Amino acid sequence: MKRIDCLKLLAPQIQDHLVVVTLGVTEQEWDMVKPRDGNLLLSGMGTVTPFGLGLALALPGRKVVVLESDGSLLFGLNSLATVAMQSPNNLTIIVFDNECYESIGGAPSHTSAGVDLGGVAREAGIRNAITVRELEEFSLETQRRLKENELSLMVAKIEPAIADVPPRYYHLFEERNRFVRYIEETERIPVLRPTKIIRRDPTKWVKK
Predict the structure, then answer these.
(1) What is the SS3 assignment for 153?
(2) Which of 21, 135, 192, 205 is 20 to 30 A removed from 94 (C-alpha atoms)?
(3) What is the pLDDT of residues 55-82, one digit of tens each?
(4) Selecting from 3.30.390.10, 3.40.30.10, 3.40.50.970, 3.30.1330.50, what CATH number does the domain 3-205 have?
(5) 83 CB contacts (<8 Å, ≥6 apart)?
(6) What phi, psi does 151 have (nearest 5°)?
(7) At what angle do helices 78-86 and 48-58 cross, to 10 degrees?
(8) 131 pairs with which residues across the strands?
(9) pLDDT one-digit tens code per residue, 84-111
(10) 116-153, pLDDT tens digit by residue?
(11) Per 3-state DSSP, what percentage of the chain is helix, strand, and coil (rounded to 5)?
(12) Which SS3 state, helix, strand or coil, does residue 149 take?
């Protein structure tokens, strides 16, 4: 099972979901398959799941999907305990586990030595955590989980493979602003814009 094939199956299921995407080839492949303002492409190892959790808690009426990798999640395993404790029912985490750091040449990750991320998630308290290895199972489980109102985590065991996608340069501040504008427009709430502009009475500037 390859990541690009999983992403192609996932793409039609994404409607108004907020999608937080891990760094490296995953974000490049997802941006080719499903380019949209509701995607947030992150560049920090270990920050993707915590960011998705924050979004889910801040916007409880919005479904949040996190596209993680084994390498990134291993940098922040403690986040699984916080996810389980908060247990937002609008958060779905999908971990693409190829057992290596593919974007930097394929150095093996801890999952290549038997670390079970699905098992770690369950022991942390995420009851609805599974591992899938076949495309058909991936498709069925994503459909079910995106419809449910329940915290869930799914590890997709994939083979190392980088799709032939065009390189994409992006600026972190541009990505942030685009994503925030999407939230402001669809949720009708201010995020970066002030709710009120406070102006001082000009007469009070005059010395008596």
Answers:
(1) strand
(2) 192
(3) 999 999 999 999 999 999 999 999 999 9
(4) 3.40.50.970
(5) 49, 53, 91, 93, 124, 126, 151, 153
(6) -60, 135
(7) 10
(8) 155
(9) 999 999 999 999 999 998 888 889 999 9
(10) 999 999 999 999 999 999 999 999 999 999 999 999 99
(11) 45, 15, 40
(12) coil
Strands ordered across the beta sheet of 64-69: 39-41, 18-21, 64-69, 91-97, 152-157, 129-132
8 Å CB contact between 152 and 93: yes
Name the residue among 73, 160, 88, 158 with its Cα closest to residue 121: 73
What size, in residues, is the chain?
A: 208
User: How is residue 122 written in tokens?
Assistant: 């369950």
Q: Positive or negative, the Cα torsion across 121, 125, 129, 130?
A: positive
- Domain locations along the chain: 3-205
